[in-house]
Amino acid sequence: MSYTEALTRYTANFVDELYHSGLRDVVVSPGSRSTPLAVTFAEHPHIKHWVNMDERSAAYFALGMAKQQNKPVAMVCTSGTAAANYFPAIVEAYYSRVPLLVLTADRPHELRDVGAPQAIEQIEMFGKYAKWFQEMALPEEAPGMLQYARSKAARAFHTASEGNPGPVHLNFPFREPLMPDFSLNNLWRGSNGKSHHPTFSGEKRLEPHQLDKLVERLAMHQKGLLVCGPQFDPDLAEAVCDLAEKWKLPVLADPLSQLRAGQHDKVNVMESYDAILKSKQVRDRIEPDFIIRFGAMPVSKPYLLFVKEHPDIEHFVVEPHQGYREPAGTPAQFIYADPIHLCQDLSLHGTAPSYNQQWLETWREMNKMAKAQLLEEKREQFSLTEGHTVKQLADAAPEQSTIYVGNSMPIRDMDTFFMSTPKSIRVLGNRGANGIDGTTSSALGAASRGEKVTLLLGDVTFFHDLNGLMAAKQYHLNLTVVLINNNGGGIFSFLPQAGQTSHFETIFGTPLDIDFKHASSLYEGKYTKPETWSDLRQALTDSYRYEGLSIIEVQTNRQENVEWHREKWKEIEHRLLDYLGG
């Protein structure tokens, strides 16, 4: 067997095994050393390959795709700093628990640490952010090596998915010549083949005596809260809301919890909890006895302060497998069990706790008052505001669509102004590391599945990943970009740094002064800059009828935005304190 045949069969067996394990998409960044992997993926009859020239953008594109599909996506790059450009997205995938297969090509061992070009240290280069690392063997002609390749592929796919999902990294040293020979026979196992390592995994569930003990503990209290932070599973919403109705408890639902949208009963969902908890005086008057939290810590900073200020609250954190997501530093108790099964088991438990009904009614009334104040229109009818742009977006977003939200102010406005809706809308964001990196690429990765996707983000975040728009042009992806342009980093205007006027604009405000219409033209998008609410509604409606990229630029003023938000929060505080008797 020649080296080229050994290379071809080794790589083909690896790629084919990924298909039989469940892989359907790979994102490839062009390069020479990665030729065996790239062209073999492209040649495989059942795996779709996507080409993205910028590795940083490519990795975030794969991240968004994997998040939307809730299954692993592979990405392939050449050796050297190409792999290093994957790092930000791998960090995000690790913290947000997204499965990725990171396949990096490398120089063979004799070309390492000798001054060869495009050769850097790639062994375990992503450190703890990779769930598993494997330095792959050089392709050989021994029959056992084909089984070796299949075994590593199956293990990689399973490891990325099992437990808390995350990225795995396989490093492939290749010698020249690099081009496989696809004229060889029997490269693929066929569509009816089985995975090399089929797996059977069960869900974690509390034992009956553990469930009895938990219910006994919870029954000792009168006032409780269910909290759901960022998470991807759309089926959790009904389970949590059913438990809330059975036990008559309020649910504080993060915008990324998947609880605010859908057909499930949302009568106990308090979507305005962030606005309610802005006031310390209000926080001091509504202390619960216990909290059960599902998902990651919510976006809301007032909620984090609420937890920190009341360390005596009995705090339970539900994790499906493992982990320690409790940044408040409270003496929390961890429940390692499948969240849906836990809710169902608690709902069906023979001893249902009896809680203070006035507690639930108080939360319902506060939520009603806060929503009314947040949605009240005054000068909004004359000028566009960032918060009410979210309301218009939510009203216009199509059924069975996704809203991808950028960090900084957009996710916070989503938290405040995205109210409950019966429409089936997924809300996604990159809240693992909370960075602005690759947001546009992630949204386009989500759009690759064919659903309508709306991206809500600020001008600095948009600028940071402008080249990600190339995928929209290249693959004719449907993406509506709602660009909040306040000419700089709007979130800093809410922080203490805003008082340091001498250097604030240069270091924090960072005005861009960019005409984004040209970016739209560069990537063949449709550009609109509405001046009124009517214009915005029409632009959104038109964008969902349009095939391809639409950019809707909403021009706002940073200082006016701060004043508008603070006025809303102050009015809510006054109304709530009057209601609470304070």
From TrEMBL:
<dbReference type="Pfam" id="PF02776">
    <property type="entry name" value="TPP_enzyme_N"/>
</dbReference>
<feature type="domain" description="Thiamine pyrophosphate enzyme N-terminal TPP-binding">
    <location>
        <begin position="13"/>
        <end position="125"/>
    </location>
</feature>
<comment type="similarity">
    <text>Belongs to the TPP enzyme family. MenD subfamily.</text>
</comment>
<dbReference type="GO" id="GO:0070204">
    <property type="term" value="F:2-succinyl-5-enolpyruvyl-6-hydroxy-3-cyclohexene-1-carboxylic-acid synthase activity"/>
</dbReference>
<dbReference type="InterPro" id="IPR029061">
    <property type="entry name" value="THDP-binding"/>
</dbReference>
<dbReference type="Pfam" id="PF02775">
    <property type="entry name" value="TPP_enzyme_C"/>
</dbReference>
<keyword id="KW-0460">Magnesium</keyword>
<comment type="function">
    <text>Catalyzes the thiamine diphosphate-dependent decarboxylation of 2-oxoglutarate and the subsequent addition of the resulting succinic semialdehyde-thiamine pyrophosphate anion to isochorismate to yield 2-succinyl-5-enolpyruvyl-6-hydroxy-3-cyclohexene-1-carboxylate (SEPHCHC).</text>
</comment>
<keyword id="KW-0474">Menaquinone biosynthesis</keyword>
<keyword id="KW-0808">Transferase</keyword>
<dbReference type="InterPro" id="IPR012001">
    <property type="entry name" value="Thiamin_PyroP_enz_TPP-bd_dom"/>
</dbReference>
<dbReference type="GO" id="GO:0030976">
    <property type="term" value="F:thiamine pyrophosphate binding"/>
</dbReference>
<dbReference type="InterPro" id="IPR011766">
    <property type="entry name" value="TPP_enzyme_TPP-bd"/>
</dbReference>
<comment type="subunit">
    <text>Homodimer.</text>
</comment>
<comment type="pathway">
    <text>Quinol/quinone metabolism; menaquinone biosynthesis.</text>
</comment>
<dbReference type="GO" id="GO:0009234">
    <property type="term" value="P:menaquinone biosynthetic process"/>
</dbReference>
<protein>
    <recommendedName>
        <fullName>2-succinyl-5-enolpyruvyl-6-hydroxy-3-cyclohexene-1-carboxylate synthase</fullName>
        <ecNumber>2.2.1.9</ecNumber>
    </recommendedName>
</protein>
<dbReference type="InterPro" id="IPR004433">
    <property type="entry name" value="MenaQ_synth_MenD"/>
</dbReference>
<keyword id="KW-0479">Metal-binding</keyword>
<feature type="domain" description="Thiamine pyrophosphate enzyme TPP-binding">
    <location>
        <begin position="440"/>
        <end position="554"/>
    </location>
</feature>
<comment type="pathway">
    <text>Quinol/quinone metabolism; 1,4-dihydroxy-2-naphthoate biosynthesis; 1,4-dihydroxy-2-naphthoate from chorismate: step 2/7.</text>
</comment>
<dbReference type="Pfam" id="PF16582">
    <property type="entry name" value="TPP_enzyme_M_2"/>
</dbReference>
<keyword id="KW-0786">Thiamine pyrophosphate</keyword>
<dbReference type="InterPro" id="IPR032264">
    <property type="entry name" value="MenD_middle"/>
</dbReference>
<keyword id="KW-0464">Manganese</keyword>
<dbReference type="GO" id="GO:0030145">
    <property type="term" value="F:manganese ion binding"/>
</dbReference>
<feature type="domain" description="Menaquinone biosynthesis protein MenD middle">
    <location>
        <begin position="220"/>
        <end position="405"/>
    </location>
</feature>
<dbReference type="InterPro" id="IPR029035">
    <property type="entry name" value="DHS-like_NAD/FAD-binding_dom"/>
</dbReference>
<dbReference type="GO" id="GO:0000287">
    <property type="term" value="F:magnesium ion binding"/>
</dbReference>
